[in-house]
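Open question from group meeting: does this chain pack into something compact, or does most of it stay loose? Before anyone orders reagents, we agreed to write out a predicted structure and look at it together. Recording both the input and the output here so the notebook holds the full record.
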Amino acid sequence: MTFSGQASAQIADFVATNGVIWTVDEDNPRAEAVASLNGRLIYVGSDSGVERHIGADTEVIDLDGAFVTPGFYDNHVHFEGTGRLLYGLNLLDVSDEDSFVARIRDVHERYAPGTWILGGDWSAYETWAEGDVAEAGREVNPDDQYGNFFLPNRGMIDRITGDRPVLVRRFDRKVYMANGAALELAGIRKGMPDPEGIAVERDENGEPTGALFNPVSGAVESTVLVRDNVRTHFNNLIPAPSREQRIAETREAWKKMASVGVTSYCDITSNPVYVDIYREMRDKGEMTARARYRPPLDRWQSMADLGIKVGFGDDWIRFGATKAWIDGIMGNSSARFYEPYTHNPSSRGIWRDIMFPFERSPDNPEDMQSRLERLALEADSNGIQLTVHAIGDEANGYLMDMLERIIAKNGVRDRRFRLVHAQVMTDRDIKRGGEMNIVAEVQPFHTSDDMRWMEERIGRDRSRGAYAFRRLWDSGAVVSFGSDSPGTNASRYYLNPMLGLYAAVTRKTLSGQPEGGWFPQEKLTVEEAIQAYTLNTAYAGYEENMKGSITVGKLTDFVVLSDNLLTMNPDDIKDVTVQSTVVGGKVVYSAE
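Structure tokens returned:
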């Protein structure tokens, strides 16, 4: 075996030997050892060849025959929400009193005094468990406005939380539960009228039980966003999280990333305070994962004013892209489709606010263009990368049309337009995606999770175009993987890349259903899936020359796994664990 691109006689500060290394470098796909100096690889090759890079002060680790890949690069992390969920409250899988009380107690004991306990999204899996696959054809009952779900009350937790305010919600945001401290601050008391637009549940003595109901009316309310009067009523009472709280959440998110082998991620958080936190932690040498920050599209001008465009940043914090949303999500049936939902023929989903108003085109006053398109044209002409959320087939189709118009106006160039989620696409749009060299920024675990309701909501035929990884790959589009952590109000999307790889190569739920996989013709190979979670995401961010493969000259970011992904039964990939994670030539996680 020969190895190319090796530096000569440099003494490394870090060496790893005796591994089964899958490099994701087509010129040098396999290796046994690596050597690193100042955080970058100076050697990738055989055990015998690495010896010349070992000096008296070199740190040497024995991989003991373990399987190694490049560090995973998650293409889509809502970082603020992820840290908050990991450090704070997660009720997605909770639908009984014991579990509810236990989760609240755990967060109460961890939080600083005075910090509100918020969120939760209880009962998200009460109707469909994570391993279920729903049948097509069940229709929404327009009379079942609030649903027969678990309903907690303040009596379950008041004795635990005391004077700490608690305001938690059900997954659909139709129902909230407040403890006594929160109710008192909000002026919701015995003998007082209900706040406008909120229905307060009361016991036989007129005391508020803590259950608060948002208004729901009409059959379409299950497919549009509920007017969240409860949260609006409390908003002015809830203080912003302290910087100390945000730093604690940041550390918790990075700790989790290291434990699952994520060494880089794209941050979808809109709050710029996290950029300051990143810089502070970087300057202290405490970052353990590399971030690419993406603010909303309507901030493109402030980016341009600062000279920020594609390629801006350093090894730890990078910029140059913006994020926009065009439609809703499958979890609450608000994704936008050409035809009505199968289970609710009164709705085709929604357009997000950024689409409006439609404006006259400056080039042709007879044509109308969305606000989204105007902003996209302006950002693109200033060298800023576009990334846009699209779930339903009409949403994806609109973006393909929009991209054609952007290319016609701003010219052909290496823009790497990122179609975020690319979840349900027509055959025509899959083909166009390849022709226009898009990046399909997909999250494969959506397949395992969402298949429980896809056919029920859009039918078998349209589901053919859902998560079409094989056809997107073969079309010429760049398929990039990530997690969408922490998920939506209806689903939990885990940071763990093993779940994404498992979903991409098996197309099964976590319980192994259906046999043979859901639309199995869309499976990727294990090698392709690893590339999608490493090199392809680096390419999607114009970073393929610095990360994404184990290649001389690139950053020393890699992951040591418990099993060989290339030789094992794909059904078991979901259970593979990380033995250690290395970022910049430093071990940031060890299972031992």
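Observations to bring back to the group:
Residues 1-7, 134-144, 218-225 have pLDDT under 50 and may be disordered.
The two ends are 33 Å apart (CA to CA).
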